[in-house]
Design goal:
Layout lengths: L27 E2 L2 E2 L1 H18 L7 H13 L5 H12 L6 H6 L1
Antiparallel strand pairs: 1-2
Helix pairs in contact: 1-2
Length: 102
């Protein structure tokens, strides 16, 4: 009954993309699980409910990027996180006038 499929979506991701079939009561198969994505969305949901309270469709991609960065840096020290942030802003500018014009 374990159905594991590599989908077309997997071609877009370096590690591929595999699925589990919840309709068969399957939630994990070997190293394939939904726990990681559920943890990410829990972090995003807590951020929206606890900090932002409302997000606009217009800027949804920005909120998702912020929480992807938080997720990707969840296991590094504060110092490493600061260094990564500084490296990430080098040569970039996003003035407020441009944000509200988007």
């Amino acid at each position: 009954m374990n159905v594991v499929a590599t989908t077309e979506l997997g071609k877009s991701f370096e590690g591929g993309h595999k699925t589990v079939n919840h309709s068969y009561g399957e939630y994990a198969y070997h190293d394939i699980t939904t726990n990681t994505v559920e943890s990410y969305f829990a972090l995003l949901k807590r951020g929206v409910q606890g900090v932002f309270h409302h997000i606009s469709k217009k800027h949804l991609h920005r909120y998702c990027d912020e929480f992807a960065c938080r997720w990707n840096n969840r296991k590094v020290t504060d110092g490493e996180r600061a260094v990564n942030a500084i490296k990430g802003i080098e040569g970039k500018s996003l003035p407020y006038k441009k944000i509200i014009a988007i």
